[in-house]
Automatic annotation (TrEMBL):
InterPro entries: Leu-bd (IPR028081), Peripla_BP_I (IPR028082). This is Nitrile hydratase. It holds the Pfam family Peripla_BP_6. Coiled coil: none annotated. Residues 19-317 form the Leucine-binding protein domain. Keywords: Signal. The keyword Signal applies. SUPFAM superfamilies: Periplasmic binding protein-like I (SSF53822). It comes from the Bacteria. Belongs to the leucine-binding protein family.
Length: 362
């Protein structure tokens, strides 16, 4: 639906529909995530609408391109939609750079649920980041890799924006704690067309392990080049954001000694995921987009939103992520901590062909 359609509409709330802006990247490096995000969100909407929806209204998704490379400024679109009363809430599965821009625009006018893993430290009132942080995810993963492979030097490679830089700051503190050297730290723009120079720099650095914090298609291009060079023989790879779609795109021959850490994988065996997968494939069929952490997060985000509104009313306007509200909500993830903290289990997985295996609870 176009902004012009909303301007002509008028009484939005009178329709009895609760409109959620689903902000996901539809183009650019992170566009590879979109099909799984949309499909997972649709399952949540169907489940909510079988019950009471949100705030007693049926839920409707308003899809908005939140890619860094999107043609229209996301702040202007979202601000106009809020001013018009055309959206009641935001569920965002996008990069942290976009979240930081939008947090200055939304200003507690509507609830904003941010779903993916992120760098931590979000304290904006009315904004709730529900994904895992480097302390929860990256720290245990690096300790696991160090213990298993005993690399003498690490390299840190990522896209040039807040999440990789903040995550790598945390990674450097882990290296210092483990008394391990940093061989290389490099940040590249989105959409780098040729990864050969970056991979050559990595090869020359003398690193035995590399933390890859590249996004979507950029991670795919890096891993393809890395694999063709045969660098897996000397360098082990760790990623905190490589999911099932990216894994398949990398290609079977380019994934040796590649590990990923996440609070969710599509093939993890637990009761929560089994129930989610049954509903997901029941709606979309066996050829549905691959289940992954980022897609599952939109499913979870919509249920978190419903739980937040249903259990806490308008309290969201004064609260934020740091308040750790004990919201009860459906998820495909397994939670092992107390309900008050509601933090997910984190798993390490190894790439095997074009799937993840050997899951280890960290």
């Amino acid at each position: 639906m176009e902004l012009a359609d909303f301007r002509e509409n008028g009484q939005f709330h009178a329709s009895g529909v609760y409109r959620v802006a689903l902000l996901i990247p539809l183009c650019g490096a992170a566009g590879i995530w979109a099909p799984s995000c949309i499909s997972s969100a649709q399952v949540a909407v169907a489940e909510l609408n079988k019950a009471d929806g949100i705030d007693g209204r049926k839920v409707q998704l308003i899809m908005i391109d939140a890619a860094v490379e999107a043609a229209e400024p996301i702040e202007e679109i979202v601000n106009d939609l809020i001013d018009l009363g055309a959206i009641d809430a935001i569920v965002g599965m996008h990069l942290s750079a976009i979240r930081q821009r939008l947090s200055k625009v939304v200003r507690q006018r509507i609830p904003y649920i941010y779903t993916p893993l992120y760098e931590g430290g979000e304290t904006t009132a009315g904004l709730f980041a529900i994904g895992e942080t480097p302390k929860e995810q990256l720290g245990p993963a690096m300790m696991f890799m160090q213990k298993r492979f005993k690399p003498r030097k690490w390299a840190l490679i990522g896209n040039d924006y807040v999440w990789p830089r903040s995550s790598h700051d945390y990674a450097k503190s882990c290296l210092k704690q483990m008394n391990v050297d940093l061989a290389m730290e490099c940040y590249v723009p989105f959409g780098l067309s040729n990864m050969s120079g970056l991979v050559s720099q990595l090869e020359a650095s003398g690193a035995d392990a590399v933390l890859v914090s590249l996004v979507g298609q950029d991670a795919v291009m890096f891993n393809r080049t890395f694999g063709r060079r045969g660098l897996h023989k000397n360098i082990v790879r760790l990623s905190t954001a490589l999911e099932e779609n990216g894994l398949m795109a990398c290609g079977r021959g380019n994934l040796e000694r590649l590990f990923s850490v996440s609070s969710y994988f599509g093939s993890i065996s637990n009761d929560e995921n089994a129930a989610f997968k049954e509903r997901y494939y029941g709606m979309h069929g066996d050829t549905a987009p691959a289940l992954n952490a980022l897609g599952q997060s939109t499913y979870e985000g919509l249920h978190y939103l419903a739980g937040l509104i249903g259990q806490f009313g308008d309290v969201w306007q004064q609260k934020s992520t740091r308040d750790q509200l004990p919201v009860s909500y459906a998820s495909g993830r397994n939670f092992t901590h107390s309900p008050a903290l509601r933090r997910p289990s984190v798993y390490m997985a190894r790439a095997d062909g074009v799937q993840f295996c050997d899951f280890k609870l960290l």
